[in-house]
Amino acid sequence: MIRVENVVKAFGGMRAVDGATLSIAKGSITGLIGPNGAGKTTLFNVIAGALPPTSGRVLLEDEDITGLPPHDLFHKGLLRTFQIAHEFSSMTVRENLMMVPGGQAGETLWNAWIARGRIAREERALAAKADEVLEFLTIDHLADERAGNLSGGQKKLLELGRTMMVDARVVFLDEVGAGVNRTLLNTIGDAILRLNRERGYTFVVIEHDMDFIARLCDPVIVMAEGKVLAEGTIDEVKADEHVIEAYLGTGLKNRDKLEAPA
């Protein structure tokens, strides 16, 4: 579904991504792991249009999307979340979801005067869709809560809910487990699995929690120093001496450290 071909992203003389080539299969949940500074988030930013590549290209189902801005990719069904959730803190959880779809009638001043009925019908439909999403994510009890009052894990669920308000085809999740307690992380994992199995979502997940990666992801791609180092099942990459060396710098004798949750 996604092909990344020899992508380089340089900042001055430093290559944060250095000739990365990889493929994301349609309908998969692909894990992207690696030590800090490996280039994972920078690669996400290049694929999602936040950063232009220095060279190389990105394809979505054989369409060259290299350098397209995020709003164009949004309309093509490619979405991403962030390490730090970006919510409208003063708005309710339901209202945050209702804001997502583009091209709403109420966005123009002219329609506010002459198409009030259309706007009202559209808002009712969006509210119903938002409530359906919140029920799916098991946070419907928070529909009327201000988003700024949510916990870190609840905000991550809200970000996942945003992808459900549009026709997402592939979703990039950047450290969805950061700052999230284990119970909510399990809830997030359940939602990702259901979206993948029941609705055909394709996911790419950056995460340091190896238990979370092991539960959700196959295949797992490992990056180090801006390059793709290895790819395979979680057990295969954990047994790869090059992967262990990249994480630990000490070889196989410290294998258990890689296997422990981050």
Task: Write a concise synopsis of the structure shown.
The protein is of the alpha/beta class and 262 residues long. It is built from eleven helices and ten strands.
Residues in β-strands, percent? 15-25%
Structural class of the helices, strands and pairings?
Answer: alpha/beta
Total domain units: 2
Count of helical regions: 11
Give the CA-based shape: globular
Note poorly predicted spans.
250-254
Largest sheet: 6 strands, mixed
Strand order of the largest sheet: 6-7-8-3-9-10
Question: Per CATH, what is the topology of the largest domain?
Answer: Rossmann fold
| CATH class assignment of the largest domain | Alpha Beta
Instruction: Report the CATH architecture of the largest domain.
Output: 3-Layer(aba) Sandwich
How far apart, in Å, are the first and last alpha carbons? 29 Å
Pfam family, one: BCA_ABC_TP_C
GO molecular function, one term: ATP hydrolysis activity
Keywords: ATP-binding, Nucleotide-binding, Transport
Protein name: Branched-chain amino acid ABC transporter, ATP-binding protein
